[in-house]
Amino acid sequence: MEDRKLYALYCVTATGFFTVVQGARPTDDAGALYSLEELVERLRPGRGRSYELFIARVNESTQPHAEDVEEIRRIQGSL
């Protein structure tokens, strides 16, 4: 049986990363996270300069998969 794909929206800064909605469960509805991404961008200025948003594949504990951690690190280096 294949594992269910779960996602979480992260805010990535030059010094770290965190889930946008603290305490939220991972979701299999990536579309909802894209909608949330648009809302956060409207409410929080500075995307691309002081932070970036990233939808990561995660486990049940909201820990990003290794490949996504690598991408987060790459994003951090560009900020």
Map the helices and strands.
Layout: E1 6-12, E2 17-19, H1 30-43, E3 52-58, H2 66-78
Walkthrough of the structure:
It is a single chain. The chain is an alpha+beta fold and 79 residues long. It has one domain (6-78). It is built from 2 helices and 3 strands, in the order ββαβα. Strands 2-1-3 form a 3-stranded antiparallel sheet, sandwiched between helices. The longest helix is centred in the middle third of the chain and has 14 residues, at 30-43. The protein is globular and about 35 Å long.
User: Domains counted in the coordinates: how many?
Assistant: 1
Shape annotation? globular
Number of strands: 3
Q: Which residues sit in consecutive blocks of at least 5 with pLDDT less than 50?
A: none
**What portion of the residues fall into strands of 2 or more residues?**
15-25%
| Series of H and E elements | EEHEH
Based on secondary structure, the structural category is: alpha+beta
Could you report the average pLDDT, rounded to the nearest whole number?
Answer: 94
| Separation of the first and last Cα atoms | 39 Å
For the largest beta-sheet, the strand count, sense and barrel status come to: 3 strands, antiparallel
Helix content: 25-40%
Spatial sequence of strands, sheet with the most strands: 2-1-3
The total count of helices amounts to 2
Radius of gyration: 12 Å
